[in-house]
Design goal:
Order of helices and strands: EEEEEEEEEE
Oligomer: single chain
Length: 132
């Protein structure tokens, strides 16, 4: 809120979801998943999640970044089904590029960022909102 009690700017979110799976084809190399085109001015709150596949026991890592700065990251081991879901959030000040979530498999050159494992078509989504 600003001093007059109103919002200082329009809080219009920018949201993007994958519409197809993204292959993770190089061990330890990140593949970009959902991303937004929000511009490089201002402070942005970002939140999102990805469902990632791999072989059972594979090490999956994800990051929320703008091409330069990583503001959140996570890791998990794919369970017996080979599927893991990870959520990330953070704040960017003057992002250098599109805000996105990327994933890698550190155990093998296989797996994907899945767009529709749930059947709801929003399994890899990132949302950003300008907060300043």
């Amino acid at each position: 809120f600003n001093r007059s009690g109103g919002f200082p700017l329009s809080l219009t979110p920018v949201v993007n979801s994958l519409t197809t799976n993204v292959a993770i084809s190089v061990t330890g190399t990140y593949a970009d998943g959902p991303s937004t085109t929000q511009g490089t001015v201002g402070t942005w709150y970002a939140s999102g999640s990805v469902v990632v596949s791999g072989a059972a026991g594979d090490g999956i890592r994800v990051k929320l970044y703008d091409g330069t700065t990583t503001v959140d990251s996570g890791a998990d081991e794919a369970g017996a089904t080979g599927i893991v879901c990870l959520h990330l959030s953070g704040i960017f000040t003057a992002p250098t590029g599109n805000i996105r979530i990327a994933a890698t498999n550190i155990s093998s050159a296989s797996g994907s960022i899945l767009f529709n494992q749930s059947g709801n078509g929003k399994d890899a989504t990132v949302s950003v909102i300008r907060i300043g």
